[in-house]
Write a structure and sequence with these properties.
Layout lengths: L1 H33 L2 H30 L7
Helix pairs in contact: 1-2
């Protein structure tokens, strides 16, 4: 069981680093291309961060179906 938890959490850390890194970099890039200014950068980054949270929650839910966290006898 703990091996399953470790596998899912390790994958989640790796994927979340990519998702949230892309959210912040993409938010900065989009806001600058659209000329939204400093407040626009933060707004787009927050919006993409929320999308990243949804992606990560979906990933963990789906991973728990494949790698169960509890023993089912």
């Amino acid at each position: 069981m703990w091996q399953n938890v470790s596998t899912v959490m390790s994958a989640a850390v790796l994927i979340s680093a990519e998702v949230f890194g892309a959210a912040f970099a993409g938010g900065w890039a989009l806001a600058n291309v659209l000329g939204l200014g400093d407040v626009g950068v933060y707004a787009v980054q927050i919006a993409l961060f929320i999308v990243g949270l949804v992606v990560m929650a979906s990933f963990v839910r789906n991973a728990m179906r494949i790698e169960p966290f509890v023993a089912r006898d």
